Amino acid sequence: KGRANYVCHFNLERAMNEGRFISREDANYVHKVRAFADNSATGDKSELTDVPENATIWPSVTSTRDNCMGQECAYYKECFVMEARKRALAADVVVVNHHLFFADVMLRDEGVAELLPSANTVIFDEAHQLPEVAGLFFGEDISTSQLMELARDAHAEYITTAKDCTALPEATAALEKAVRDFRLVFSFEGSRMPVQKAQALKNFESAYTTMQEKLDVLTRVLESQAERDPAIENCWQRGLALQQKLQAWQKADNANLVRWVEVFSQSVQLHATPLSVAEGFGKQLNAQPRAWIFTSATLAVKSDFSHYLGQMGLEAATTGYWNSPFDYGQQALLYVPNGMPEPNSPGYSAAAALPVIRASRGRAFVLSTSLRAMREIHALLKDAFSTEGMEYPLLMQGESARTELLDRFRALGNAVLVGSQSFWEGVDVRGEALSAVIIDKLPFAPPDDPVLAARIDKMNAEGRNAFMEYQLPYSVITLKQGAGRLIRDEADRGVLMICDPRLIAKHYGRRIWQSLPPFKRTRDIAEVEAFFEQAADDAMAEAGKD
């Protein structure tokens, strides 16, 4: 796992000594973390269930690539991350997530010690996620959170090591203010915009320049103190790296890079994302002789892999396509209601879902294509359940951690869970607890996505059909992931409902549903009700045999 998953002895000790916590809960949690670190063999924070995974104490007691001091750290010999790497080096099979794999790739390219051992075979599961993940690493990104963390760490060093350097707290406070002022340039959290739109905002350029200037001042102060302690030297080196990143993002003119801005509640992320990862990934494929295997239930569109091969630069790859062992024609039903309005109608989706939820006796996922639609559908279902006396438990993504929500969903047995992207893939609920999956609309990538817009423009300028070559395959692959939540076992039975008229009315709709598993299809709610009645009868008959 990445560094952020392991307790860092150095940062834990510093947090204990400083006693500066965001909340009273953190002051309590830090003692639990300390007791855990003193007794754990791994330091893996997932093993400390007494501290929530989203607790604000974790950034203070774990490390990042930026603030890890490596061999300069006084706790290097006891480091949990280094112990994990030693175990990996001795292992025959190492399991990591996609992000850690590409983090290792980038470090190797920079000539830095690698995170992972060398391997003669690389197997990517859920390989449909790779183009997006690779884009994050082959691009250039910087977040204002990194600047705030540098200011926080530099101030901590002032308190512990350099109390006589009065310029240091002044410089950290000035940088923190500049970063907050830059965030205030943007009105809305959750927004994404191309660089041109961001630069047109009032005060963008001046706030960006001020942020750079205050970072420069802090970096010079840190340089003057760097010889006093390795931790201060680390802060100085981070300051230099962040200076370069801010300058590089501002001046990036690579034709393959799209500059854009993403706004969060407390931070701003500046991205420079490649239009294509094919060239960058191709270099990794040819870097050393080894086998590469890409596997997923959703790499092909109607058994055609060309979209994925083109995205990843895998023209020479051998492909294989195997059908599912499930009997979809008997186990599942695809229901597309009659009289559907145009998309973007959460009110319709919620109303149309009610007869299916009633027929399935709860036991349903309602999957939306955006967080906003998810919240609207949840509110509408809550009102409708109350009005119609439907007493099914109603859950929503974000109410608690995904694993906890899934545990509750399974245990309740008749719940309805409304979710967005987190529940479209990587979720496995077998048995009767999940008997219906309801999808509000076809999952086309959002049109305001700056990278998507740039890719579409480039493809169309080349005389290609961006919709058929890029947008439609993306929708098919994502829809197949959502539909895949329904049948997870040879004994599962269920209904997939899609509330989007484009599946029927548009010429490309046929290509979409033909890419789905071969469900029996209907547009009649009576057939849905009959399907569930038959499933209940079959379950009772099976129970009678037992």
Question: Layout of helices and strands, plus pairs?
Answer:
Layout: H1 9-18, H2 24-39, H3 58-61, H4 80-89, H5 98-109, E1 121-124, H6 130-138, E2 140-143, H7 144-160, H8 167-183, E3 192-194, H9 195-199, H10 204-225, H11 230-251, E4 257-263, E5 268-274, H12 278-287, E6 291-294, H13 306-312, H14 328-331, E7 332-335, H15 346-360, E8 364-367, H16 371-388, E9 394-396, H17 402-412, E10 416-419, E11 436-439, H18 450-461, H19 466-483, E12 494-498, H20 502-505, H21 509-515, E13 520-522, H22 525-545
Parallel strand pairs: 1-6, 7-12, 7-13, 8-10, 8-11, 9-10, 11-12
Antiparallel strand pairs: 2-5, 3-4, 4-5
Overall spatial form: globular
Gap between N and C termini: 45 Å
Low-confidence stretches: none
Strand order of the largest sheet: 9-10-8-11-12-7-13
What amount of the residues lies in strands? 5-15%
Radius of gyration: 26 Å
Number of strands: 13
Helix content: 40-55%
- Give average pLDDT, whole number: 89
Biggest sheet overview: 7 strands, parallel
Helix/strand/pairing class, anyone?
alpha/beta
Tally the helices: 22
Description:
This protein is of the alpha/beta class and 546 residues long. It is built from 22 helices and 13 strands. Strands 9-10-8-11-12-7-13 form a seven-stranded parallel sheet. The longest helix has 22 residues, at 204-225. The radius of gyration is 26 Å and the shape is globular. 34% of the residues are buried.
Please outline what is shown here.
With 546 residues, the chain is an alpha/beta fold. The protein has helices spanning 9-18, 24-39, 58-61, 80-89, 98-109, 130-138, 144-160, 167-183, 195-199, 204-225, 230-251, 278-287, 306-312, 328-331, 346-360, 371-388, 402-412, 450-461, 466-483, 502-505, 509-515, 525-545, and strands at 121-124, 140-143, 192-194, 257-263, 268-274, 291-294, 332-335, 364-367, 394-396, 416-419, 436-439, 494-498, 520-522. Helix 17 (402-412) links the parallel strand 9 (394-396) and strand 10 (416-419).
